[in-house]
Amino acid sequence: MNDVQEIIKDIKSKFRLYMNGVISQSMREKGMDYKLNFGIEYSRIKEIAAGYEKNHELAQALWKENIRECKIMATLLQPVDSFYKDIAEIWIEDMKYPELAEYTVMNILQHVDYASDVVFKWIADERTYFQFCGYMLMTRLLMKGMKLNERAEAEFLDQAFTEIEGGEPMVKKAAATALKKFATQSKENAKMVGRQLGLLSKTANPELKLYIDEIKYDIEYCQ
Question: Contact, 172 vs 163, CB < 8 A?
Answer without folding.
Answer: yes
